[in-house]
Amino acid sequence: MRLRLEFLALLAATSAPAGTDALAFVADPSSHRQLLRHREHAASLTLSAASPSPYARTKWSPRPSSASSPPSSHGDSAPGGRQLSSSSSSSSSYEDVRADLMALMDNPSWDDGSLAPIFLRLAWHSSGTYDASTGTGGSNGAGMRFSGGMESRDPENAGLQAARAFLEPIKARYPHISYSDLWILASYVGLEHTGGPIIPFTPGRVDHVDESYWSRNGMSYGRLPAAEKYCCPHLDDSNVSSSIDPTTGTVRGWEGLCTHVRDEVFYRMGFNDREIVALLCGGHVYGRCHPNASGYAGPWVEHPTKFSNEYASDMIEDEWTLVSNGDGWLIGMGAEELIPAPGKRQFVNKVPGKVTEDGGDGANQMMLLSDMILKWDPTFRQYLELYAEDEELLRNDFGVAFKKLTELGCGF
């Protein structure tokens, strides 16, 4: 109750748009493809000695945090400007944090009754800025909390003020934990709470003391992905079908979007093709998009608050129609929630005038253009089909890849 009252007081001062929108990572083009092909099988992904292969079908369990973990600076949030060290905390204190986070997850007043998706998105966006070639970015720093900083001004992070506000009372109760660690731990707990992989938590992320990290390192926002980059640039909201190649059924320019997602984003961070598909299939089973945040609208899956392989299986099995803001026919099908903001395109599991076999319109679901490349690219497609057939394999592969993502740039 105390945490709830503390949060309500904090949230009243926060005018953040709600949303758990598309996980997006945009970057400037660079020659990461060749580097990644040489390093693809050398990536260190093993969670423990009991899991010799990155894709071993092992059963995970949490391990206690080390009491001698590296120091974590809390920057401007630390009392008196002091640096607080996570080494001063015991492993039991992290279990206390975990317990409080677990109690926070169910929230009937939030999207679909769960905070797990927005915490997952917060962890993705705080980690997905990493660049392996420069060693910059990653889950260290928690730079999003600085209102004038580059990360907080990134439009791809719209709506995440609310996620941070939900966690602020827990940060106040446990000042030994850095913001960086708290954001990642919240995502791990959210995954566990919703039937996802149980990921061992390693503390030691260090918070930035101010917003200057990005400018000092010559960085700018734009490392998080754009869902339509390089696709047919001239959108006519009244004739969105002109964006479709009639011979293939794909969006014109999708190959460029695929290069953006693969090379400019995930290869830049150090991921291979299988890991890319695992991250998207596991991450986009959660939450929904909002027109007032990302511009896109609706959930990816029917049940957006529990782990499953529904994203992969539905992408392959369902019929998808490209829509824009001008597609008012969705209202008549009870799918108004799938209409994106002006200037945005997305796929929906609806066809004008067509209903499902049981006579209803079915669940309202959408896919971003950057999702559909998993279906169109032959290499991505083979892994998409693998996960569509095997949920347990996806749970394991996603857990390994997500742990890797959330430890980028941390030095452990």
TrEMBL record:
Q: Which InterPro entries match?
A: Ccp1-like, Haem_peroxidase, Haem_peroxidase_sf, Peroxidase_I, Peroxidases_AS
Keywords, ordered alphabetically: Heme, Iron, Metal-binding, Oxidoreductase, Peroxidase, Signal
Gene3D superfamilies, per this entry? 1.10.520.10, Peroxidase, domain 2
Q: Where is the composition biased (Low complexity)?
A: 61-92
This entry's Gene Ontology molecular function terms read: metal ion binding; peroxidase activity
Q: What residue stretch is flagged as signal peptide?
A: 1-22
Tell me where in this chain the Plant heme peroxidase family profile domain is found: 160-412
Q: State the PROSITE patterns in the record.
A: PEROXIDASE_2 (PS00436), PEROXIDASE_4 (PS50873)
Residue segments, region Disordered: 47-92
Write out the similarity annotation: Belongs to the peroxidase family.
- Write down what this protein is called: Plant heme peroxidase family profile domain-containing protein
Q: Which organism is it from?
A: Cyclostephanos tholiformis
